[in-house]
Amino acid sequence: MEYFTQQLINGVTLGSIYGLIAIGYTMVYGIIGMINFAHGDIFMIGAFIALISFLVLGLAGITFVPLALLIVLVVAMMFTSIYGWAVERLAYRPLRGSFRLAPLISAIGMSIFLQNYVQLLQGARVKPLPPVVQGGFTVMERGDFTVIVSYLQIVIVVVTVVLMGAFSMLIARTSLGRAQRACEQDRVMAGLLGINVDRTISLTFVTGAALAAVAGLMFVIYYGVIDFYIGFVAGIKAFTAAVLGGIGSLPGAMLGGILIGLIETFWSAYFTIEYKDVAAFSILVLVLIFRPNGLLGSPEIEKV
Amino acid sequence: MAVVPDAPARSIAPGERRLDLAAVLKEAAIAGLIALALGFFIIGLKTDTVPGGLALKGRWDWVAIAVAVVVAGRLAIALRRQMRPQAASARREEIANRIADGVKTFARYAGPALVVMAVAFPLTPFANRYYVDIATLVLTYIMLGWGLNVVVGLAGLLDLGYVAFYAIGAYSFALLAIHLDWGFWVALPFAGCCAALLGVLLGFPVLRLRGDYLAIVTLAFGEMIRIILLNWYHVTRGPDGLSDIPRPSFFGLEFARSPEEGVETFHTFFGLDYQSLHRIVFLYYVILALALVTNFFTLRIRKLPIGRAWEALREDEIACRSLGINPTNTKLTAFAIGAMFGGFAGAFFATRQGFISPESFTFIESAVILAIVVLGGMGSQIGVVIAAVLLIGGTEVLRELEEFRMLAFGAAMVAIMVWRPRGLLAHRDPTVRLHQAGAGGGSPP
User: What Cα–Cα distance (Å) separates residue B2 from each residue in A181, A198, B5, B8, B24?
Assistant: First the structure.
């Protein structure tokens, strides 16, 4: 029971990270119907920017942890979102209205490019970061096994929940959110009604990248090591999460992220750690076969 | 507000040839600022591993260079656009189309000519070990491209996990050859069958999915196969890989300098001096033959009902279903046949290398093969050849640039897509579209 609770806590933490990345996939898919294959690498770049800004802050002598976290969060979100914008502008916008596979291929090319770009400029070795937030609560204790919720896990889950709330408000209440939902339904009509479609799509990429940057920051402080390759696997899993929750649905992306995090953690805890990715992918296949629209997605009617 | 997304807003009307220097400079300055922001952390601050953590090293000169390049490039593009407002892109498109048409017209004659050239190539004096090796590699990718072309180009199924079949072919061949002592030619069909069987097994549950989902599921399958190969240690020997895979023999004649007792070798049988080039040239011919078989098969099956059904299915699945074509079975055959050719290529890869490990079957391989098919122009056989020569041969020639190779590869993929979204030699003209420049996602695949 204690072991189970501990794994549950770990799983939810990991799931929060996946969920934040998954939102980027789900929004982009919702609005332009393409898999933004480079999104995982945007997450990786966010992690690198967070790591480097931690080091810069360390040199600058800012050691008050909450302040440092806040600064890094803002910096990483800002700079990563510029990457999101640039990727869309360079690799996807010229292909808008082109045939279906073109943006996907372009995205794969972009993903390869970004990975090698970071590898070349920052080196291929793993980058360690000393623990930023330490300590935690003891929730349960029996015999020699204690269930611990670390402060870090609390930070991760709280930040995720706050961002999710803010983001849902953004989509539901602001004019940008309205424009986004309108473009999702019918881009031509939205354009005719005076919505700047290009700008809306750009902003979708920017917000997606900002959330991926948050995920990157959390990844770097949670695991303490990153390399240029983390974006690939995390990207596929986050996409799996988006599909699992129902692509196009924001709560679905978060739910899917948490589920994938839990599945992965429990699989590693109770079965074999080597096959945890296989478990996550098998879930993807099963969901697609039995519930192609995901858990919270609305069915899509094919019109002739 | 104009909604035509792929016609960027221009500051001057067409025909008006006035240079708006202020606008150009502003555009370049903005581009420079963005480049500065992009490069600030990743280029400007290098993390170095030192004892006890990481150290930062400033590289502001690199950032300055990057920004300067971006500003100059943006300036050039903006100036060019102002000088010749609309014509440039349209004319470029037209020229490229004409070249593509020309190539297609000549493909009828060029095809056989290319085959003759390929056959004659090892006999020419400049065929040294290095060039024959590169040519073999390019041919392997051409074969893989042709195999995947059946799935992607003809049937319109986006497969991002093609490397799984390549891997299955390689591993099943290696295991048969090592444990059962089967020769290359006997094991080859089995390797192909294993891959095709796997294709059917994988394809059966997932082929009902729509295009993008299928892509991601095949990608997941590719990764799953790799993870299994990596962890199933007592069969695949995991990350250590399988070594000592037997080399193919020439009708029972081995290529070896000093054979075992009683084994006749190629050079003694033909009374030649031993040369290691013999085996390399032989391998070259093997893959050439395999690739040509793939090509011939594809060209013929296109004209059969099943091939027609694939292409019809690519164009409109609902119409096909109404006309009594079983979409699942039709897709499954395409998937299985594509997988079979992947398996053949894998078996060849295993026998050529003599050593295989899961390292060789990563997602990047799938991406490269898919890139060859799509960049060449989906469904175009000659396009695959051109794309394979450009991508594989090109990056192979650039090997001195080692680290920049994949960077250039990724950038080239994006650039070619932006320049010609339908590939260098698009096989068919775009079908009639309802909305010009299709702002919606409604254009057919």
Answer: 19, 10, 8, 10, 22
The answer, for B77 touching chain A at a CB cutoff of 8 Å, is: no
Whether residue B254 lies inside any domain: the answer is yes
Q: What's this model's pTM, rounded to 2 decimal places?
A: 0.83
Residues B364 and B321 in one domain: yes
- B79 and B108 part of one domain: no
Whether B145 and B277 map to the same domain: the answer is: yes
Q: Residues B151-174: what's their mean pLDDT?
A: 87
Q: Under a CB-based contact definition with an 8 Å cutoff, are residues B154 and B334 in contact? A: yes
CB contact under 8 A, B1 and A281: no
Q: Which residues contact B325 (CB under 8 A, 6 or more apart)?
A: B309, B312, B313
Please provide the DSSP assignment of A103-155 as one string: HHHHHHHHHHHHHHHHHHHH-SS-EE---SS--EEEEEEETTEEEEEEHHHHH
Q: Does the beta carbon of B54 lie under 8 angstroms from any beta carbon of chain A?
A: yes
Which ipTM value was assigned to this complex?
0.83
In chain A, what is the greatest distance between 2 CA atoms, to the nearest angstrom?
Answer: 68
B337 and B199 in one domain? yes
Enclosing domain of residue B55: 21-85
Looking at this protein, which amino acid is placed at residue B7?
Answer: A
DSSP B51: T
Picking from B42, B404, B418, the nearest residue to A106 by CB comes out as: B418
B184, B249 Cβ separation under 8 angstroms: yes
Closest residue in chain B to residue A197, using alpha carbons only: B3
CB distance A102–B367 less than 8 Å? no
SS3 B398: helix
Q: Which helix (H) or strand (E) holds B56?
A: strand B53-58
Identify which of A29, A52, A99 has the shortest CB distance to residue B443. A99
Residues B365-407: tens digit of each pLDDT? 888 888 888 877 777 778 888 888 887 877 777 666 667 777 8
